[in-house]
């Protein structure tokens, strides 16, 4: 999910993003980009000036994305002790992304792996533009 807005006379702004679990952290969804054909994106990627900017800025931005796994590890350390309490208070009865039966550690590792797979896929897609 992503919020888009535009002030009168200003550029279109995208963000913040949220609710990334389904398309970002599920391994079988790591070789696709759900927003690629949604809303304004198809038009943006037909604009050669936009594509040129994406290709120019991607190498710098990509470095920052690779630090996300460290962020995930740090956040996981902060919340791991609450995992069992969370499950006892809010039992999971619906299987949405198939990490519901994994241990906390395995779910975190799956999230990081799926994120890196998506990042590598995106890197390849940008190189082919």
SSE diagram, text form:
Blueprint: E1 2-6, E2 12-17, H1 21-24, H2 41-44, H3 48-65, H4 68-79, H5 83-89, H6 104-128
Antiparallel strand pairs: 1-2
What features would you highlight for this structure?
129 residues; mainly alpha; two-stranded antiparallel sheet; 2 strands; elongated
Question: Would you write up a description of this structure?
Answer:
This protein is mainly α. Strands 1-2 form a two-stranded antiparallel ribbon. The longest helix is centred in the C-terminal third of the chain and has 25 residues, at 104-128. The radius of gyration is 17 Å and the shape is elongated. A hairpin with a 5-residue loop joins strand 1 (2-6) and strand 2 (12-17). Helix content is 54%, strand content 9%. The protein has helices spanning 21-24, 41-44, 48-65, 68-79, 83-89, 104-128; strands spanning 2-6, 12-17. It is built from six helices and two strands.
Q: Brief description of this entry?
A:
This protein has helices spanning 21-24, 41-44, 48-65, 68-79, 83-89, 104-128; strands spanning 2-6, 12-17. It is mainly alpha-helical.
Element order: H for helix, E for strand: EEHHHHHH
Give the N-to-C terminal Cα separation: 24 Å
Class based on secondary structure composition and strand pairing? mainly alpha
What is the beta-strand fraction?
Answer: 5-15%
């Amino acid at each position: 999910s992503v919020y888009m807005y535009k002030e009168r006379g200003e550029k279109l702004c995208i963000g913040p993003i949220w609710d990334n679990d389904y398309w970002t952290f599920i391994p079988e969804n790591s070789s696709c980009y759900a927003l690629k054909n949604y809303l304004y994106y198809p038009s943006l990627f037909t604009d050669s000036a936009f594509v040129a900017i994406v290709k120019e800025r991607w190498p710098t931005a990509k470095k920052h994305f690779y630090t996300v796994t460290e962020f995930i590890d740090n956040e996981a350390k902060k919340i791991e002790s609450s995992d069992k309490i969370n499950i006892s208070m809010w039992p999971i009865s619906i299987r949405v992304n198939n990490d519901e039966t994994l241990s906390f550690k395995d779910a975190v590792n799956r999230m990081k792996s799926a994120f890196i797979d998506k990042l590598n896929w995106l890197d390849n897609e940008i190189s082919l533009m």
